[in-house]
Amino acid sequence: MFAKKLMIGAALAASLMSSAAWAQDPVRIALVAKSLGNGFFEAANRGAEEAAKELGNVQIIYTGPTSTTAEGQIEVINALIAQRVNAIAISANDPDAVAPALKRAMQRGITVISWDSGVAKDGRELHLAPSSNELIGQTIIKLAADELPEGGEVAVLSATSTSTNQNIWISEMNKVMDQYPNIKLVATVYGDDLADKSYRETQGLLQTYPDLDAIIAPTSVGIVAAAQAVADAGKIGKVNVTGLGLPSEMAGAVESGASKSFAIWNPVDLGYSAAYLAYELATDKAEAKPGAVISIGRMGSVTLDDANEAAMSTPFKYDASNIEEFKTVF
Ligand code: RAM
Questions:
Q1: Which protein residue has the closest C-alpha to ligand 1 atom 10?
Q2: 56 phi and psi, to 5 degrees?
């Protein structure tokens, strides 16, 4: 009898101890990049770490596939489900292909959000876009057009052909092309956010379109490679490379003149905001539903639209006048 009581007591103590230990377990948030080795996602990870420090008791697991494929991300997601993380915040290589794996994660109680590059609505609780898609689409063509007062030929060097964010931005850009009757969009090619493929695709554009005046690369990997290919082809001053890039990676291209200007939002702030949102949902401080106003800490708050989407801020233009100041920031 006594022994039995002792055993019950021990079991109770053990379960109390484990629940106390559970209470101290960190909230584990996986930040899933399109691929590893991309400076944009590394900057976002710095922001996520910043949010973790501010929130306390949060662990960021920065991960992603080695190349920008949905298959690679599905493997990563399955591993995160097995690790029983509390939240997954993903920038998707394909809006649909990763959705089934993410649905499985949600069924197991894992919070799932997308950020940067979205997941189909049923595969995530909310999506955080860096900025308004319309604004980004309008910005990238304006950057090219502003340097071509007489008009000219423009080509797009994108990331992967399934990338949610670039595809939306390009379609928003296409919607306003009639505002630029002198600008002819001659081609759209895909460098898959790989430096070497982006470089080769740029070489292909330069060969196929000898009169090309500008390349719009709405990808931080593509824009650097395109600027390099233009410089190597001796076409600085003839072909202007613009789009979206990191000041730290584009400083040389601005200095050489291969890129007159480009734009981007702050990727550190974006990673910070994504981690913050994942935390708010995972700890039940907020619920993802249309109209919800959710805190993003030092960045303020976001309000979810009917599709549970929100945008963080506006893109900022970088050129010779400010690149020195920002190249050490991100
Ligand atoms: C690349 C990625 C990312 C995009 C930036 C601008 O790093 O494609 O998704 O937001 O470029």
A1: 116
A2: 75, 145
